From TrEMBL:
It comes from Nocardioides exalbidus. InterPro entries: CHP03086, DinB/YfiT-like, Maleyloyr_isom, MDMPI_metal-binding. GO terms for molecular function: metal ion binding. Residues 9-113 form the Mycothiol-dependent maleylpyruvate isomerase metal-binding domain. This is TIGR03086 family protein.
């Protein structure tokens, strides 16, 4: 069985590849995250490994704070903080690695957001999507999704793992073919 931290490593890798594929000419475009540009989404993704690391250490996290990462440093900043986050998680006992599952969901959804928002051809891992969906279905209810997630979007039975994940997160995957 794959550990949550190993799945997180895959999720971080695909998020890094999705960030690498963002073109400078795409940063001001709207993203699949309502009210966010591609720049705002990419900045959020780039800053989040450091913030998840803070969470794992029991520190207070301000998710709304401006990360202050320059546009041309988004991918490199992400990779550096992702490596630090992973190393820190691997040092913790398994019972203290709970933030890994939540982080997998974060990176799975936002990797799709980046790919769909930019039309990138970055391949996304269905196993990461399945793990993320299970985590979100376990913790996300109608009551606590307000403000962060729109209601689940209904899909036909032939939906892919990623379509089911992002539909659960309130995005219409078929409205953003990439």
């Amino acid at each position: 069985m794959t550990s949550p931290v190993d799945t997180l490593e895959k999720a971080l890798d695909q998020a890094g590849r999705a960030l690498d594929a963002v073109g400078a000419n795409q940063l001001d475009n709207p993203s699949t995250c309502v009210g966010w540009t591609v720049r705002e989404l990419a900045s959020h993704v780039a800053a989040s490994p450091g913030r998840f690391g803070q969470m794992a250490r029991g520190e207070e996290v301000d998710w709304a704070a401006d990360p202050g990462i320059a546009d041309d440093d988004l991918a490199s900043s992400f990779r550096s903080s992702a490596d630090t986050f992973l190393a820190g998680l691997r040092e913790l006992p398994e019972e203290q690695q709970g933030s890994a599952a939540v982080a997998v969901a974060e990176y799975a959804v936002h990797s799709w957001d980046l790919v769909a928002s930019t039309g990138s051809d970055v391949m996304l891992d269905d196993a990461v999507a399945e793990t993320a969906l299970a985590t979100m279905q376990e913790g996300l209810t109608d009551e606590n999704r307000k403000g962060a997630f729109d209601p689940e979007v209904p899909l036909p039975d032939d939906a892919t793992a990623y379509e089911r994940l992002v539909a659960f997160a309130g995005r219409n995957p078929r409205a953003f073919p990439g």
